[in-house]
């Protein structure tokens, strides 16, 4: 099993490239950046983490700018989105950004994707929360057409274009791994329809059972990665036994001295897991 970390790349904390370079030097396999274009100052959408939303949610750099900085600072590390909010993005522009980062990094991008939880945020982008999942699927299939066709076309309910040229194509074929985030009752529909894998946040209640359920439903190989894993050797053992490809933990946003403390705890858990 591989190991990685997630990070909110805020403008007032350690730079994305610095974090990437340091976690690569310390042997991590991947680094994932969170994305929020903004946070509405007034909202009704509830955050699962509690009543107060941390300020890092509205202080992040642009996702693909941060990924470019991380890719340029490293040579081996896989860099990815945890997750890219596709329902808030133009698919033609996003396809270009994904392909560009993957090409410039030599094929090291992993594309975690999701619809998000903040309905006011997506509404500010013109997305109707009631139809966001249909929109999500169309935008993903449209991007996959752009990545694989010299002259791409797409006709759908929400996305329509005819005969477009868009280069570069991704270095990874047919595209960077598309890891579908989310934990809701319909997430497996999206994974099985157009995803390359499932990318849930850690849940110690029924995650292992749901992984087994997905394996039973799949008719092709699917990669499972888990984000937000606690620094607990027993949790790592359980995930490995379930066939998880990579376990990643969240690091705090702040100066490197703050990040390093949490990273060292994660490394100790990995070390203890490796000795069992």
UniProtKB/TrEMBL annotation:
<dbReference type="GO" id="GO:0046306">
    <property type="term" value="P:alkanesulfonate catabolic process"/>
</dbReference>
<keyword id="KW-0285">Flavoprotein</keyword>
<keyword id="KW-0288">FMN</keyword>
<dbReference type="InterPro" id="IPR011251">
    <property type="entry name" value="Luciferase-like_dom"/>
</dbReference>
<dbReference type="Pfam" id="PF00296">
    <property type="entry name" value="Bac_luciferase"/>
</dbReference>
<dbReference type="InterPro" id="IPR019921">
    <property type="entry name" value="Lucif-like_OxRdtase_Rv2161c"/>
</dbReference>
<protein>
    <submittedName>
        <fullName>LLM class F420-dependent oxidoreductase</fullName>
    </submittedName>
</protein>
<dbReference type="InterPro" id="IPR050172">
    <property type="entry name" value="SsuD_RutA_monooxygenase"/>
</dbReference>
<dbReference type="InterPro" id="IPR036661">
    <property type="entry name" value="Luciferase-like_sf"/>
</dbReference>
<keyword id="KW-0503">Monooxygenase</keyword>
<dbReference type="GO" id="GO:0008726">
    <property type="term" value="F:alkanesulfonate monooxygenase activity"/>
</dbReference>
<feature type="domain" description="Luciferase-like">
    <location>
        <begin position="12"/>
        <end position="220"/>
    </location>
</feature>
<keyword id="KW-0560">Oxidoreductase</keyword>
């Amino acid at each position: 099993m591989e190991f990685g970390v997630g990070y909110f790349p805020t403008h007032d904390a350690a730079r994305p490239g610095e974090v990437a370079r340091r976690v690569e030097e310390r042997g991590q396999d991947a680094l994932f950046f969170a994305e929020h274009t903004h946070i509405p100052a007034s909202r009704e959408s509830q955050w699962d983490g509690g009543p107060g939303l941390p300020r890092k949610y509205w202080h992040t750099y642009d996702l693909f700018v941060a990924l470019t900085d991380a890719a340029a600072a490293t040579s081996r590390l896989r860099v990815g989105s945890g997750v890219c909010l596709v329902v808030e993005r133009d698919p033609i522009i996003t396809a270009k950004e994904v392909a560009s980062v993957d090409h410039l990094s030599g094929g090291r991008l992993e594309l975690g994707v999701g619809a998000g939880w903040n309905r006011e945020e997506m509404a500010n982008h013109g997305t109707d929360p009631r139809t966001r999942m249909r929109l999500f699927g169309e935008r993903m299939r449209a991007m996959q057409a752009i990545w694989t066709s010299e002259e791409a076309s797409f006709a759908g309910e929400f996305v329509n274009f005819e005969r477009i040229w868009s280069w570069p194509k991704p270095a990874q074929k047919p595209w960077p791994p598309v890891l579908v985030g989310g934990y809701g009752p319909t997430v497996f529909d999206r994974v099985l329809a157009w995803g390359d894998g499932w990318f849930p946040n850690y849940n110690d209640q029924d995650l292992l059972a749901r992984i087994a359920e997905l394996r039973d439903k799949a008719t092709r190989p699917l990669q499972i990665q888990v984000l937000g894993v606690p620094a607990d050797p027993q949790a790592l053992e359980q995930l490995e036994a379930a066939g998880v490809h990579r376990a990643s933990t969240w690091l705090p946003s702040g100066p490197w001295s703050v990040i390093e403390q949490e990273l060292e705890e994660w490394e100790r858990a990995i070390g203890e897991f490796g000795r069992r």
